[in-house]
Structure formats: C-alpha cells, structure tokens
Amino acid sequence: MELTGPGAVPALTAAHEVIRQPLGEILPRLSAVLAELVPHRAAAELSTHCAHSPFKTCGDPEITDRLSTADLAPLLASGVPGRPWQGMLPLAGGERPVLVVTSGATPRGAVLLLVREGAGAPPVDAPAAALVQALWDVVTSHFDRLAAEAMPGALARSRTAAGTRARVIAELGEAYSAALTALLGVLRSRTLGDAAARATATDLAVSALVELRAEAERDQEIAEEPAGQAFSRLADSLRPLVRYSPVRLELGAPDSARTVAADVAHTARVIVRAVLLKVLEQETVTRVHVGWQITDDELRATVRDDGPGALTHEVLAPGRVTERLDVLDGRLDVDAVPGWGTTVAATIPLRVSHDPAPDPLIALGERELEVLARLALGHRNRAIAQELHISESTVKFHVAKILTKLGVGSRGEAAALFHTVA
C-alpha cells in the first residue's frame, strides 16, 4: 500500500484498511500498514478504552515477550498528543530506537510504540510522523466508539474477561507477595553470615515488592475510572444537548472518591444520554436533574424532570438500553407522577459476579468468536479464511475447537446457539 503519495486518498485507504479489521487484528494490520513508512521490529499499544486488554503487542517475539504495561504507562503519562517523539529507550533488555505516538482522540488517551530496526535507523521525517499520528488518532477514535457503543454480547465478554483478569492479578499479587515476604524473612535471619549479601538481596526483594504493587495499581488505573472523572465526561456530553434549549440542566456529581469499572461508566453514560434525549422531547419540561450516587455495591444514575409525568418504561428503555443493563445485571426503574414529572433510575452493580457466566460463548477466545460469527452467517471456511487473513486449515482448527467448547456436533448447531445468545 502506497502511503507516501501527495494526496489524502492513500492515507484514507490505509485508515479504512486498519479499522475494518476485527479488534484483535487492528494492531497487527496497523503495524503492517506503517512498516514501509516507519520500518520497525515490533509494535505495542496501551489503549485505555479497553477494560480487559488495554495492552497489546505484535512483531518480533524477542521484543514483544519482554514488553509490559509498565513500559508503556510512563509513555502514555508523559506523551503529548499531536507531537510524536522519537529517540532511544531502555526496552526489552537494551537501548532501542523508538517512535512514540500519543493520541488525545479519546478522553483518557492512548499510546502507540514502534520499536525500530536498529540504532542506526534514520530519523522519521515530519510528514511521515504526522501521518502515523493521524492514523493512530483515527484508530483510537474507532476504539472509543466501539467501547461506548458496545453491543451486549461484546459487553458481556468484556465484563467477564475483566473480572477474570482482576482475579488473576489479585491471586498473582498474593502469591508473589507471600514468596517475597518469606524471602525477606530468610535473608534477615541472624543465622546468615554475609551481611553485605543479605543487604543487597533485601534491597532487591523490597524493590520487587514495590514494583509488583505498582504494576497492580497501573493496571487498575487503566481498567477503572475515578467516579468524579467519569461523571465529568458525562456532563461534558450532556451540556450541548440543552445549550439552545429553555431547559435548565442540573448536575449532581457523585460524592465519592472511589473508582468504577470502565464498562460500568460507559454503560451509565450511554443510558443517561438516551433517557435525557427522550425527556427533552416533552414540550413542557423546564428543568432536568442528572445525578450519580455510588455505594459500595452499585452505581445509581438518575434523570429527574418536571414534565407531565407521562413517560413509560417502554418509551425510555428501548431494546438496546435494556440489553446493556441486562448484561451488567442492572435494572431501570421509572417513577412517573402525572402533573409532577418523571424520575428514571438506572442501577448497575459495581462488583463483577464470580458465578459462572450463563452465556456459553464466554468459553470462546476472541479469534474463535470471530470465526463463529462468520460461521453463523453461513460463510464457508475459505471465505472465513480470506476475511480474517488466516489459512483454511487454521479455520478448520478453530471450528473444531468451537464445536468442542460449545458441546455441539455440527456447524449448524453452533450457528443456532450463536443466534440464540449473541
């Protein structure tokens, strides 16, 4: 694909080629598209839109296997959107030339890291860096839209994966903390003779504990949002809706310093916006109050108006709203009093259920879900292979795994099950 031409068409074609890929293939495709513009050995991203897999890599395993969230978190924090940075960074066991691109196209930001070919790689010129920036902004905007408008099936998989991920992190943290604490106890024992060795090993163990805890905190910062910040984002999206309206919008921010899971915050914002649009369709409304209340167990988002009190649950909660709430075990309550107004309350649990998910598709991996979705549309193996850029034999392998995991005996049964629960 030619990216260096003078016109905008090649860049638009490149952007379309990237965002049309399944989610799991976007970074590899972006890396391939940028390879001739900025030759590189590996690419990595840290995208805060995703609650369960914000960190992704592709490329040379010698590099990608040694990269982690801890490498990209400082780059995200220090990066300036619109100003790509290039230089040398200590990564994957050595000093490596990199191009770092930070996007401000999403509220919480995203960073793309390209690990270049070698120390002698020539600098990336300004037009090329600007094009990389533009493509990354397009991709991150696409990510944010998918997160904000996630279909119920995708939201369920995200929620379950986020819960699993949180539990695994907690278990690993406890195991490593116990091991390192025991190590400290041994090293501090008076029965050991070499004081210098003890001191050095103790320092190393303490540093490991600190890094372990810091890693868990970084992960939480990406997977969750402070409640006040999440509500501020909602407020910013609501004000334009009433800017040229006689309706007065009152906002009640949550009186809580805790954080909420990103999928909960996304859903609460989507539902409040949908309800507010219905409320504003009433001609006699002059005042609307929007507020969030957060307890230890749930987020309660309310929309209260002073209208005629004629709104119903069916009007305020179309299928999409109900489905999103069902996925998160939430509910929508409507209290309409004729002549006094309507109060709508969406309640969403903050804790991820540890019970086995009833959705059998949860057992499938991301690639298997992509294959199953196409299989359910009646696509044959060859067509699926072409769409996903994999071989037919790989498709056959995925189909066999899908049938086994779903406990069905044929492609038709798998497709029927997909249509039932997806």
Would you write up a description of this structure?
The chain has 15 helices and twelve strands. It has helices spanning 9-19, 26-34, 61-64, 69-78, 126-148, 152-187, 195-223, 227-242, 262-280, 313-316, 319-327, 366-376, 381-388, 392-406, 411-421, and strands spanning 40-47, 55-59, 85-91, 94-103, 110-116, 224-226, 248-252, 259-261, 287-294, 298-305, 331-337, 341-349. It is globular, with a radius of gyration of 25 Å. It has 422 residues and is of the alpha+beta class. Residues 1-9 and 216-221 have low confidence and may be disordered. It folds into four domains: 9-148, Beta-Lactamase; 152-223; 226-349, Histidine kinase-like ATPase, C-terminal domain (Heat Shock Protein 90, 2-Layer Sandwich), CATH 3.30.565.10; 362-421, Arc Repressor Mutant, subunit A, CATH 1.10.10.10. The protein has a five-stranded antiparallel beta sheet, with helices on both faces. The protein has a five-stranded mixed beta sheet with strand order 7-9-10-12-11, with helices on one face. A two-stranded antiparallel sheet has the order 6-8. One of its GO terms (molecular function) is DNA binding. This is Helix-turn-helix transcriptional regulator. Keywords: DNA-binding, Transcription, Transcription regulation. It holds the Pfam family GerE.
Tell me the β content: 15-25%
Mean pLDDT, all residues? 77
Biggest beta sheet summary: 5 strands, antiparallel
Number of helices: 15
CATH class of the largest domain: Alpha Beta
Calculate Rg over CA atoms.
25 Å
Unreliable parts: 1-9, 216-221
Give the neighbour order of strands across the main sheet. 2-1-5-4-3
CATH third-tier fold name of the largest domain: Beta-Lactamase
Written as H for each helix and E for each strand, in order along the chain, the element string is HHEEHHEEEHHHEHEEHEEHHEEHHHH
Q: Which second-level CATH architecture of the largest domain applies? A: 2-Layer Sandwich
Q: Roughly what percent helix?
A: 40-55%
Strand elements, count = 12
- The CATH superfamily name of the largest domain is GAF domain
How far apart are the first and last residues' alpha carbons, in Å?
Answer: 35 Å
Keywords: DNA-binding, Transcription, Transcription regulation
GO molecular function: DNA binding
Domain HTH luxR-type: 357-422
GO biological process, one term: regulation of DNA-templated transcription
